[in-house]
């Protein structure tokens, strides 16, 4: 099977069955060659329904999870987005076509597989963001690509009003993907999206401070 056919099958058999119908999301996932961001030894598995190891104990999220989180954020093109966990840069690149500005943070910049055509609205940072990232202003959306035992309050406070945050909370074998929306200066709503298990965000297990 060609990788192009595998990409089409990913949309039909993994993304849509997970009730991802946002056409902007589907188009963006179709446009980006996931194999270009996959370690060479796993290139033929780029579109498989699995979490692909990328080094340092990190993984690429499965396509289904990526599709669900992108749809939940409901980006329309003008937003500023904070991504915690750049990884290889695949999801970062997808986000760059759905929002105005992407600030992406990772401890391991050597995992990144951007080429010379990296979108200009991606701004990469290196550091430990397990307990927030306050070097920039607030954001309209936040994506945390590793699981957290609980959510530090700083992330909630880094959201603009009506901003949305995607996170996977809990500890294996019970974790829940949630969407949190800032309603007022001191109020946030929380929606449970689905159950899953993904590796923890590095250093997040050391000193959880806040449970939402």
From TrEMBL:
The keyword Amino-acid biosynthesis does not apply. This is Protein-L-isoaspartate O-methyltransferase. The keyword tRNA processing does not apply. One of its GO terms (biological process) is methylation. Keywords: Methyltransferase, Transferase. Pfam families: PCMT. The lineage of its organism: Bacteria, Pseudomonadati, Pseudomonadota, Gammaproteobacteria, Chromatiales. GO terms for molecular function: protein-L-isoaspartate (D-aspartate) O-methyltransferase activity. Transmembrane segments: none annotated. GO terms for cellular component: cytoplasm. Belongs to the methyltransferase superfamily. L-isoaspartyl/D-aspartyl protein methyltransferase family. SUPFAM superfamilies: S-adenosyl-L-methionine-dependent methyltransferases (SSF53335).
